[in-house]
Amino acid sequence: MWSDPIYSIIWMSCLSVLFVVAEPIIMMKRNLGFKEEDILGVNPVRDFFTKLLYCALCSGFCIALLFT
């Protein structure tokens, strides 16, 4: 039952949304130096990873890649 692909898609999408909006994860990202309000274009590499961590679609894609 749980090996059905639709359950994997639902599970990974829920995990990606929680990764973006959960308060403990946000605090961990901020402690690592990735603050969403600090995207100024000065450091394009850091801005890229910050956008990657705060975008649900980007995070979901990376999480899906990790689990496949």
Write up what this structure looks like:
With 68 residues, the protein is mainly alpha-helical. The chain contains four helices and no strands. Helix 1 packs across helix 4. The protein is elongated, with a radius of gyration of 14 Å.
- Secondary-structure-derived class: mainly alpha
How many strands in all? Answer: 0
Low-confidence runs (pLDDT<50, min 5 residues)? Answer: none
Oligomer: single chain
Helix content: over 70%
Average pLDDT taken over every residue: 87
In angstroms, what separates the terminal alpha carbons?
18 Å
Biggest β-sheet: count, sense, barrel? none
Shape: elongated
Tally of individual helices: 4
Q: Roughly what fraction of the amino acids lie in strands?
A: under 5%
- Element string (H = helix, E = strand): HHHH
* Radius of gyration using CA atoms only: 14 Å
List the helices and strands and how they pair.
Elements: H1 5-21, H2 23-31, H3 44-54, H4 56-67
Helix pairs in contact: 1-4
Structure described in brief:
The chain contains 4 helices and no strands.
Keywords:
68 residues, mainly alpha, 72% helix, 0% strand
